Amino acid sequence: MVFFQSKQSRSKSAPPLVKSSSHPSPLAATLEANMQTVRQRLSDPLDLKFHDLQLSANSGCLAYLDTLVDTDIIHEQILLPLAKGLDLPIRQQLTSTDVQIRHDIDNVIQDLLSGCAVLFLRDQDEAYSVNVPSHQLRSIEEPSNEKVIRGTHDGLIESLSVNLHLIRKRLETSQLVIRSFEVGDEVQSKLALLYMQDIANPEMIAKATHRLSSIHADLFKSSGYVEQLIEDSWLSPFPQILSTERADRIAYNLIEGRAAVITDGSPTALVFPVNLFTFFQSPDDYNSRWHIGSFYRMLRILSFFIASMLPAIYIAIIAFHFEVLPFKLVVAFKQSVELVPFPPLIEAMLMELTIELIREAGIRMPTSIGPVIGIVGGIIIGQAAVEANLVSNVMVIVVAVTATASFTITSNEMVTSLRLLRFPFMFAAASFGFLGISICLSVVLMHLCALESFGTPYLAPLSTGKWSDMRDAIFRFPLWLLQRRPRDPLPIKTKRSTSMRGWLSDEPDDY
Fold it and tell me: Where are the alpha helices (DSSP H) in 14-104?
């Protein structure tokens, strides 16, 4: 397995962020030599700019990559203060609060690549690095794959600082810990590990820190890279880490005692540890009254079984177990399948692969025509296949219901797992009928019982016997009854402080 190794976060005295030799490369004492070294190390790119400066007591040169910096900030915080010609040290003339003194060329190169402008002075072996990055960011909007009816409608974007701001805004507490990592050998990326110091289990945090600091790879620009390298079982088809773009969902899970990892350049955060039922929870469950939240959560869990086993059940009935159907339904099924030349497995495989093709094409198509192509293509292909006697009309209904059920699940990773899990069930049903489905289901259940997410059993609370946690697993009890946090992440503070209906005891007698 490939691992990456994390360096400590960048600070005023942090080591260079570029891959360098074990011996430092100090700056030269001449301005021309430093300029030439910068050109050579960066291969003299088109966007490398040098701005000659004449200061009151010396001369210098300002270097920057104009594709990474904000030239307006350079003008306001560097050029204008230096142009005043004040007889002060350079550090005091610069109005920026993020200025670092560099003596090593490796630090200088990395600063340039990070969106800094570096000021070199003649006959000095030190440089002044000013952080002036250009922020070309998209607007904050609701994630397209995690929409809610009630609640906030903002989501993460590709900026780490903006994402941390969205979470800080929801968790205004000194107990929120944000630990930074820098990973990648050739190109380094920033990660942030978030957790509540007074709630999260220290052993879980230590395990997460160890896995993050043990990673070793060339480039990381997506949270999906990190997820694949820190999950417990890479052979399992089931996701062991929750991916989300919603800041409110992250904040809620942090309060529950879980941790989150956010990657700079990716709008997706990773939340762990989780169990199977976490993937069926939605912010709407808590923004709605408990009756509604419980109903729709149970509907998603039912959709889990429909999406994974409905085609297999249809194959088993058609091929082996007609006797389980009422007589009138048997007649209808017989009339539907008698002209189809293929066995049920081939019929189901043909329709499932067609649905997968339509789904994938709808994602890749332009936004304006993608949904239209998916709907029209599905209707036309399904109708043509039935009229050509390639598939039965009952099979079209089964596949349509299966696809619809998969869309009710809130986690795209779990949906993808179900799409893959469907095929082994279909082969088992075609081979042994209901017995094959039972065997396949038993294997899946044994795998789920053995699966863990950062030490948390995947089937908790069913497998752990902590029945009080069922109040927020399959069902969603009233908030005033959720007096304790889930015990599976082993939080330090198990009692919630906002779930009791304290106003009941404070009502006046004549209320």
Answer: 31-41, 71-74, 80-83, 90-93
pLDDT given for residue 22 in this prediction: 47
Average pLDDT of the residues in 61-81 = 89
How many whole angstroms separate alpha carbon 83 and alpha carbon 97? 18
Long-range pairs for 51-58 at CB < 8 Å and ≥24 separation? 51/79, 53/79, 53/82, 53/119, 55/82, 55/85, 55/90, 55/121, 56/85, 56/86, 56/87, 57/87, 58/121, 58/122, 58/123, 58/124
Q: How far apart are CA 371 and CA 376, in angstroms?
A: 8
- The per-residue pLDDT for 8 is 36
For the whole prediction, is pTM greater than 0.85?
A: no
Q: How far apart are CA 258 and CA 7, in angstroms?
A: 23
As a whole number of angstroms, the distance between CA 291 and CA 273 comes to 27
DSSP state of 28: P
- Distance, CA of 442 to CA of 445 (rounded, Å): 5
| Contact between residue 256 and residue 467 where contact means Cβ atoms under 8 Å apart | no
pLDDT band for 374, please (50, 70, 90 cuts).
low
Specify the amino acid at residue 342: F
Other beta carbons within 10 angstroms of residue 166's beta carbon come to 19
